[in-house]
Amino acid sequence: MKMPTDSRLLYMKPALAICFIVVGLLVGGARPEMSNLLKMPYDKLAHFTAYSLITLLLWFSFSGRNNYFAAVSVSVLIAMSDEIYQLFLPGREADPIDFVSDLTAIGLTGLCLYRYQAIRQ
Fold first, then answer.
1. Residues 29-47 pLDDT 10s
2. How far is the C-alpha of 34 from the C-alpha of 29, rounded, in Å?
3. Whole domain around residue 58: which residue ranges?
4. 25 compared with 94, residue with greater pLDDT
5. Which long-range contacts (C-beta less than 8 Å, at least 24 apart) are formed by 28-36?
6. 119 is a domain residue
7. Does any domain span residue 112?
8. Do 102 and 49 meet the contact criterion of CB atoms below 8 Å apart?
9. Is the pLDDT of residue 5 over 60?
10. Domain total for the chain?
11. Choosing a second label site near 109 at 20 to 30 A (CA), which of 14, 40, 72, 103?
C-alpha cells in the first residue's frame, strides 16, 4: 500500500474533520433533548457557523480550479440530509428556517471562497 504524500495528506485532514463534525451532528442531534439546547436566534447562529465551517473544510479537501463549487454542492447535500434525517427522529423536526440558515452560510462562504480563488489566480 502506498503511503499518502504530504500534499495528499494535507487534503485528507480537513475531510477527516468534516467526517467527525457530520457524525457528531447526526449522532448528537438524534437525542430529543438536543432540540431545546439553543433557543432562537442562537440555534440559527449555530447552524450558520457549522455549515460555514463544513463548506470551508470541504474547500480545503478538494483540489482544482472549481473546488468552491464542489464544496458548496457537497455542503448543500449534507444540509439536506441533516434536515431529512430529523424528520425520522422522535422528538425532533425538520425546520425550514434551519435549512435557510444552512444555505445562507453555505452561499456566503462559497461566495467568499470564489472571490478569494479569483484574486489568488
1. 666 666 666 666 778 888 8
2. 6
3. 42-121
4. 94
5. 29/82, 29/85, 29/86, 29/89, 29/92, 30/89, 30/92, 32/89, 32/90, 32/91, 32/92, 33/91, 34/92, 35/91, 35/92, 35/93
6. yes
7. yes
8. no
9. no
10. 1
11. 40
Q: Report the alpha-carbon distance of residue 58 to residue 16 in Å, rounded.
A: 10
Burial pattern 39-49, b for ≥16 Cβ within 10 A else e, equals eeeebbeebbe
Residue 86: per-residue pLDDT: 82
pTM beyond cutoff 0.85: no
- Residue with cell string 480545503: 60
Q: Which of 18-22, 44-48, 78-82, 106-110 has the lowest mean pLDDT?
A: 18-22
What is the C-alpha to C-alpha distance for residues 56 and 113, in angstroms, rounded to an integer?
8
Q: Is residue 74 part of a domain?
A: yes
| Residue type (1 letter), 106 | I
Query: Is residue 92 assigned to a domain?
Result: yes
Q: Is 27 helix (H, G, I), strand (E, B) or coil?
A: helix
